[in-house]
Design brief:
By secondary structure, this protein is α/β, with parallel strands linked by helices. It folds into 3 domains: about 1-90, no CATH class; about 95-135, no CATH class; about 140-270, no CATH class. About 50% of the residues lie in helices and about 10% in strands. Helix 4 (about 140-175) runs parallel beside helix 8 and helix 6 (about 190-215) packs antiparallel against helix 8 (about 235-260). The protein is elongated, with a radius of gyration of 33 Å. The N and C termini lie far apart (about 75 Å).
């Protein structure tokens, strides 16, 4: 659905393609890129005349420019198709002035305030902040949630690693007698290690694959909690799967190597 916005500024941004809005342009509108794509596809909207049903079904307004898509609400929200209508008579309770600069923003505060006061000496100028400060304030809750999820993820990874290592090392230690018999019959250390590691890694890799598959399925739900990155981030999935696989490898390799170095006769007598 196309939303309607009112603007009293001129379209001077690099993302806008048209001549400036004049005071007489009360029946003209600007459309965002997504609105132009939604209403006219790949055709140019410049010069087209449309009606805004929520305001008037008979008054036609001419499209004179295309503005870039911007976020109108929360930072996690998408960029909704938007229509900008010019008005010079609407009373303003407040007006936000945004400036882009190649120098330190704080160095322009006095100059910008002075320019505003040349137009209206009584105009108060408040809440002068950099965009970084605005974003920091908006992202406070999201960063706290991300910190909690990150801590839970680390704890879950540690628990999974400890569980995999404990189970596999216990299974390998339980095969010490088998390893001793194989060694006594002439099996080399490398052959014993390959056999034990292969049998221990198969169930671990199957479990890791199932976990990755379930995480991809759950990505649709997780995408409601994050923005700016994909919930099924390949780098994260690869790092977690690689960590668990490494733990499984060490859990199989270390006990098997120690058992293969024991005296076969001692192992058989102890078993």
């Amino acid at each position: 659905m196309v939303t309607s916005r009112t603007s009293s500024t001129r379209c001077r941004a690099a993302s806008c393609r048209s001549s400036d809005v004049a005071d007489s342009d009360t029946e003209t509108i600007l459309v965002s890129r997504s609105a132009a794509k939604l209403l006219w596809g790949d055709d140019s909207p410049i010069g087209r005349r449309v009606t805004l049903p929520l305001m008037s079904r008979t008054l036609h307004r001419e499209v004179i420019g295309i503005a870039g898509d911007v976020k109108q609400g929360e930072i996690a929200d998408g960029m909704a198709p938007t229509i900008y209508q010019y008005s010079r008579n609407r009373p303003w309770s407040e007006l936000v002035l945004v400036m882009r600069t190649s120098v330190t923003p704080e160095s322009l505060v006095s100059a910008a305030t002075g320019m505003i006061h040349t137009k209206d000496p009584q105009q108060p100028v408040q809440q002068v902040r950099t965009m970084e400060a605005v974003l920091d304030e908006m992202l406070t809750a999201e960063r706290f949630s991300a910190l909690l999820f990150g801590l839970f993820a680390v704890v879950a990874l540690l628990l999974a690693s400890v569980g995999i290592y404990s189970v596999l090392s216990h299974l390998v230690r339980g095969r010490r007698r088998e390893i001793g018999i194989r060694t006594a019959l002439g099996a080399s250390t490398g052959a014993v290690l390959r056999l034990v590691v292969a049998e221990g890694m198969v169930p671990a890799l199957v479990g890791i694959a199932l976990g990755v598959a379930f995480s991809v399925v759950a990505a649709r739900w997780l995408e409601q909690l994050v923005f700016g990155v994909s919930a099924s981030d390949p780098l994260t999935l690869t790092a977690v799967a690689g960590t668990l696989a490494l733990v499984a490898l060490v859990a199989s390799l270390a006990p098997a190597y120690r058992a293969s170095k024991l005296d076969p006769l001692h192992v058989l007598r102890a078993g």
